[in-house]
Amino acid sequence: MTNPSLPAWLPLSVLTWIVVMVVFHGFGYVFEICDRAGLFKSSKVRRSDTLTYAQLLPRALFNQVFVLLPAMVLVQWLGWAFTGTAHLGIWRFIALLAGMAIGHDIVQYVTHRYLLHDPRLMRILGHSVHHTTGASKAISALYMAPADFFLEIVLPYLLPLVVLGGGGGDILFHLLVAGLGAFGGLYEHSGYDFAEPLRRSNFYKSVPWLGAVVETLTTSKAHGQHHTRGMVSFSDGFGSPGLCDTVFATRWDKVKERQPQRTRPQRAQESAPQEHAPQ
After folding, report:
1. Is residue 174 domain-resident?
2. Is 230 a member of any domain?
3. Could you give the number of structural domains in the chain?
4. pTM for the full model?
5. What is the DSSP string of 114-159?
6. What sequence ranges are listed for the domain Fatty acid hydroxylase (predicted)?
7. 213 part of a folded domain
């Protein structure tokens, strides 16, 4: 059963995809304007990308049009998602939102850590393409090889949705889940961390518990650390519960940073016999 408020020519999966495109590219360009105009300088904590917005855009569009859209249409055509009751009850609505957050965390952690960061598969699946970015331009969130995009973006979104019953045909539920996911990906790759000024504020010092809550909800540090250090925070990011990273102790603040290794010339110099000055 499809939502009766939608015309027959507009499947709910397609409407949801359109909203994803509007949110992603709308906010993506807002972040780009902020970069160009130098706005919110106190919150811009990463500036490490060499590719321009125009260079990042084609890959993002390709993945959205040729990977995400067909996958969403397919699961609706199969009757696995985007179909059913037109309006979810309030408690089911909330339970499904929580279930989606947890399910997304689990699926993304498994694919990201055990497939995409497996040294034998990282290049084959193309995850190395995404790691050529420094997570400092919002649109780099979808600068990925198609296989990487499917495993890290599409599967963590659609698999929990299907397992939890497809979300019915509730338009608000689907638009909220997809819209928040699109914005979260943009923010954690934008290079902005709006918790940074908060950490230095009197408010943070005077009401530490509330400041800590606000910081947790607004920080993008986890995914920035993933791009910097690699083997940390596989699913812990903006809008994510960080469940698996916490349970398996791979959260960025639970993993000790590796000490920089000394260069070979230094070791060679240290091991070489010392010349003594003439007596």
Report:
1. yes
2. no
3. 1
4. 0.87
5. IIIT-TTTTTTTTHHHHTTS-S-SGGGGG---HHHHIIIIIHHHHH
6. 99-250
7. no
